[in-house]
TrEMBL record:
Residues 1-23 are annotated as: Disordered. SUPFAM superfamilies: P-loop containing nucleoside triphosphate hydrolases. Residues 12-22 have a biased composition (Basic and acidic residues). InterPro entries: AAA+_ATPase (IPR003593), ABC_transporter-like_ATP-bd (IPR003439), ABC_transporter-like_CS (IPR017871), ABC_transpr_LolD-like (IPR015854), MacB-like_ATP-bd (IPR017911), P-loop_NTPase (IPR027417). Keywords: ATP-binding, Nucleotide-binding, Transport. This is ABC transporter ATP-binding protein. Gene3D superfamilies: P-loop containing nucleotide triphosphate hydrolases. GO terms for cellular component: plasma membrane. CDD domains: ABC_MJ0796_LolCDE_FtsE.
Length: 253
């Protein structure tokens, strides 16, 4: 399952296809991150700061699902953003398969995210005017694949997540669970090494959430998954759960 491999143009991260089972996917080493008091980037050295992460070190091997728990404001989303290359930490290293993506340029981090990282958002973030298949194919537009190949891959992925008969439906014609499955298929479009998921069952009822968790567990067998959640059922599927409190690692179980 999930074996429709796509590789695009050269990425700054070394390609180690075939070594996934034994490779550390993600390593955060002493990561600290400070925001300006307004919540954005620091604009000057004397601006009042809010410390979102404090000396956080986390390792996620391939084939492993790691859950992040903690109260609101504990740093869960900031960890996900660091792993996804959506922010550059104030201090520390964020390694993806041995490459410090925090040290890359904005353009290089974008390429890493495009080829090696899939993101599953709590509120799906699907384009309402596009079909399920077109939403899934969207990350492949810049891959160099012909349109027919993009459509075929998106169709295969929708079949993999149980939506083979819903490929032409727009998000407004799908249930919440179906929209989340489309979002997961989209995150898998480029065959990434790492999936980050922010409250992936937060908008779903219990039965639908359970089905989505089974899907994430299946995904995690040959890649790394980092999932942030308040939901115990979601955390129960993780191989390891890291508790964050006030931006620090408080417990690991």
């Amino acid at each position: 399952m999930f074996n429709h491999t796509v590789r695009g143009s050269r990425s700054p991260v070394r390609d180690r296809a075939g070594e996934r089972e034994s490779t550390t996917a993600v390593r955060l080493d002493g990561v600290t991150h400070e925001y300006g008091a307004s919540g954005g980037r620091l604009r000057s050295s004397d601006e009042r700061t809010v410390t979102a992460l404090r000396d956080v070190s986390i390792e996620v091997p391939m084939g492993t699902t790691v859950g992040l728990e903690g109260p609101s404001g504990s740093g869960k989303s900031t960890v996900l953003h660091a792993v996804a290359g959506l922010l550059v930490p104030t201090a520390g290293r964020v390694e993806l398969r041995g490459t410090d993506i925090a040290a890359l340029s904005d353009a290089e981090r974008t390429r890493v995210r495009r080829h090696h990282i899939g993101i599953v958002f709590q509120r799906f973030h699907l384009l309402p005017s596009l079909s399920a298949r077109a939403n899934v194919a969207l990350p492949l537009v810049q891959s160099g694949l012909p349109r027919s190949d993009r459509r075929e891959r998106a169709t295969n992925l929708l079949h993999d997540v149980g939506l083979g008969d819903r490929s032409t439906h727009r998000p407004g014609e799908l249930s919440g669970g179906e929209r989340q499955r489309v979002a997961i298929a989209r995150a898998l479009a480029t065959d990434p090494d790492v999936i980050v998921a922010d409250e992936p069952t937060g908008e779903l009822d219990t039965a639908t959430g359970t089905a989505v968790l089974e899907l994430l567990t299946d995904i995690g067998r040959d890649r790394a998954v980092v999932v942030a959640s308040h939901d115990e059922a979601t955390l129960d599927v993780a191989d390891r759960v890291i508790t964050l409190c006030d931006g620090r690692v408080d417990d690991v179980r």
